[in-house]
Design a protein that fits this description.
By secondary structure, this protein is mainly β. The chain has a single domain, classed as Glycosyl hydrolase domain, family 43 (Tachylectin-2, Chain A). A five-stranded antiparallel beta sheet has the order 2-5-6-7-8, with no helix packed on it. β5 and β6 form a beta hairpin. Pathway: Glycan metabolism; L-arabinan degradation.
Length: 177
């Protein structure tokens, strides 16, 4: 079965079943996967990754942009969260068992050192390095403007059952806007 994940920022993240061939959505098949009930409800950029027995829902949470003109309060900037589900079609929970639709979400990567507001992520299984998390971020030594965002990536270690970033490589290899 094919699914489409969509949604952005204030309304949550949704999944819909696709017809076969996957050129349209099955009517009334929409399911909410994640929602942040507090604050500005900022969840977006969903990416589903199958690893072992689980489907992992990676997404960006927090304020994404305009850091040079209005920096959000500490902890409210972009960060990457994850929830997982065996079925992959609802019931996504974080590491504490909280539903993603009720504000759950385990932080995978957040601001640290000179990395600020990581998000806009994706995950893929690299033939050499294994699972890789890639994203854009602000390098605080360069600047906070949206046009100054950098590309970063980390290996993901799933040995605990949850993705943990390792061997960060935040060398500027590309700019994203």
């Amino acid at each position: 079965r094919n699914y489409m994940i969509f949604g952005s920022y204030e309304e949550g993240l949704y999944q819909a079943v696709m017809n076969n061939p996957p050129t349209s959505v099955v009517p009334n098949s929409y399911a909410k996967l994640a929602y942040e009930p507090a604050g500005i409800h900022a969840d977006e950029g969903a990416n589903m990754f199958k690893h072992g027995d689980y489907n992992y829902l990676f997404y960006s949470n927090g304020v994404c942009c305009g850091f040079d003109t209005k920096k959000p309060a500490a902890g409210e900037e972009y960060k990457i969260k994850v929830c997982r589900s065996k079925a992959g079609v609802m019931d996504f929970r974080d590491a504490d068992g909280k539903l993603c639709t009720e504000g759950g979400g385990t932080i995978v990567l957040e601001s640290h050192d000179n990395v600020y507001g990581p998000g806009g992520q994706g995950v893929y299984d690299d033939p050499t390095y294994g699972p890789i998390l890639y994203y854009h971020y602000v390098d605080t030594t360069i600047g906070y403007a949206d046009g100054q965002k950098q590309f970063g990536w980390n290996k993901l270690d799933f040995s605990s059952g949850w993705p943990v970033t390792t061997a960060a490589d935040t060398t500027s290899t590309a700019q994203t806007t």
